[in-house]
Amino acid sequence: MKRPKRCLQAKQKRKLIHELAFYDSNILLDAYSKTTSETHKRDIARQLLLASNWCISAQVLQEFYSNAIRARAGQIVMLNSAEAQMVVSNIASKVLCAVDEPLVQQAIRISQRHQLSYWDGAIVAAAVRCGADELVSEDLNAGQVIEGMEVVNPFGLCHVA
């Protein structure tokens, strides 16, 4: 019988060959999550944020702030607005891709070409602009290659004998 095993160690080893990863907002949200049932995701996300080779976009910060201060069904608010603003300020010092008209146009083309939502297309477009070779997200299909970047879900499971 095969048992599920967390793939973080394998992903960490693979990460050594990647030059720059683009983090989707769910990585930030999981890092600051107060949900006790998903501590493993919080630990993985926090470990990812300790790396030095990652970037984000203004959209990621917007999504993080908006969701971090809002209570979700059955959950508590992650951060108050001042705490969330401080996180945004600290994280904005990373490689930050601005959202402008050319990025919007590229996001539309990518969303059409790959049959993604506009918002996912905007994430991909920003990752391309930043020069990322890996898109770290739990919202897209792990293993898929979009615009030359591999999508990696750091919370995914693999099976071992």
Can you characterise this structure?
The protein has about 160 residues and is an alpha/beta fold. The chain contains 7 helices and 8 strands, in the order E-H-E-H-H-E-H-H-E-H-H-E-E-E-E. The strands form 2 sheets. It has a 6-stranded mixed β-sheet. A two-stranded antiparallel sheet has the order 1-8. The protein is globular. The N and C termini lie close together (about 5 Å). Residues about 1-15 have low confidence and may be disordered.
Topology:
Layout: E1 3-6, H1 8-15, E2 21-23, H2 25-31, H3 39-50, E3 54-57, H4 58-68, H5 81-91, E4 95-97, H6 101-114, H7 118-130, E5 134-136, E6 145-146, E7 149-152, E8 157-160
Parallel strand pairs: 2-3, 2-5, 3-4, 5-7
Antiparallel strand pairs: 1-8, 6-7
Tertiary shape: globular
Q: Strand fraction band?
A: 15-25%
Main sheet: which strands, in order across?
A: 4-3-2-5-7-6
Question: How large is the count of helical segments?
Answer: 7
Rg, Å, rounded: 16 Å
Instruction: Report the count of strand segments.
Output: 8
Compressed to H and E, one letter per element, the order equals EHEHHEHHEHHEEEE
